[in-house]
Write the structure tokens for this entry.
Amino acid sequence: MPNHSKDLSLRYPPPYEVIDGCLYRKMTEKNHTYSRKLCNFTPKIISEITLDDGAVETKRLKLGGEHSNGRPLPEIDISGAELSGFNWLIERWGADCVLEPGTSVKDSVRHAIQLTAVDADKKTLFP
């Protein structure tokens, strides 16, 4: 059972929160509110790069974060299209970065990650 101490190093807007270094989502069911654990790390978008070749624009995201054990996660570069599938997670951050089971967990974590984009560096490159 988490001790519900808040991690202030990364803040997510509601309904998301960080408890003991893990990402949670506040849920309400039948007039009862509780925190549902989504994953044991706190991911964020560090930068968003738009590659514009004059015909097509593509997005690249630099992600970073921290594991609940305090280990900084390496900064990684993924395409915008890769974000929601999470096929990059184990390959890039390791098997100890765990998404909890459930039908909406990936979508909720993706949503929380995207909400961190407001603080990300944004730039456009013309290769």
Summary: The mean pLDDT is 92.
